[in-house]
Amino acid sequence: MSSMPRLFVNSDLVAGTPFDLDEEQAKYLTRVMRLGIGDAARVFNGRDGEWRAEISAVAGRRAEMTPSEQLREQPTQVAAALTLLFAPVKKSETDFIVEKATELGAGFIQPVITERTQSRTVRLDRFEKIALEASEQTERLDLPLLADALGLDAALEALPPGMALIFCDEAGDEADAPWGGQSGRARPMADVLEGLNGHAAAILIGPEGGFSPAERGFLRAREGTHPVSLGPRILRAETAAVAAMALWQAMCGDWGS
């Protein structure tokens, strides 16, 4: 892996055509990394692949870079898309979910408000910064799309037609038993994924305390929804998100490509 700094930029990347860094990026390269004119960094914009670019001008808090060589082309064909829908939890845990979803290759991240969601305020600008930094660090050539929070019904209606919904359902059907007992447990996620290989999917992770009985009934009756189990232990929401995305990438996504 190259030791050159790596930055996401909004500008088009064309050999010999300079572009301006924003003030924070200029500060990072020139003051934190102590780079000067002629020094190089890797840059990407989600459209033009990854480029080597040299600092070509520095003036006060501003800096300019000029692309010189394309290091990686932007893929024209990508693995099946992965969408993550999750109920926000506490601030640090929610930040963790956004960061790990980006690292695990999610293309779209959608916070969802459910009946038992405790944290109903999301900071989209904070999510965007977390996702940008995770993309820079993990060699992604794009950024995930991030959406503002929606109610469960609206989030499901916004899914593309025909997209499979993988509903992480930790409960059973016995109302008086802890976590619903054993009756009505969902199938293991790996078994369900065997039939979805190569298809785009959305993974739905519930809040602390799980989905309400009404939400669970609605989800189980919804066409195209696949209830799945993540094993015999009740996982924290952030753990469930990482476990489900990792398993999907291993069986259906780009880990096997």
What does this structure look like?
With 257 residues, the protein is of the alpha/beta class. It has 2 domains: 6-72, Beta Barrel (Ribosomal Protein L25, Chain P); 82-256, SPOUT methyltransferase, trefoil knot domain (Alpha/beta knot, 3-Layer(aba) Sandwich). It contains 7 helices and 13 strands. The protein has helices at residues 23-32, 91-103, 124-137, 152-157, 189-193, 213-221, 237-251; strands at residues 6-8, 19-20, 40-44, 50-59, 62-72, 82-86, 108-113, 145-146, 150-151, 164-168, 187-188, 201-205, 225-229. Strands 6, 7, 8, 9, 10, 11, 12 and 13 form an 8-stranded parallel sheet that branches. It has a 5-stranded mixed sheet with strand order 1-3-4-5-2. Helix 2 (91-103) links the parallel strand 6 and strand 7 (108-113). The radius of gyration is 21 Å and the shape is elongated. The two termini are 20 Å apart.
Topology:
Layout: E1 6-8, E2 19-20, H1 23-32, E3 40-44, E4 50-59, E5 62-72, E6 82-86, H2 91-103, E7 108-113, H3 124-137, E8 145-146, E9 150-151, H4 152-157, E10 164-168, E11 187-188, H5 189-193, E12 201-205, H6 213-221, E13 225-229, H7 237-251
Parallel strand pairs: 1-3, 6-7, 6-12, 7-8, 7-9, 10-12, 10-13, 11-13
Antiparallel strand pairs: 2-5, 3-4, 4-5
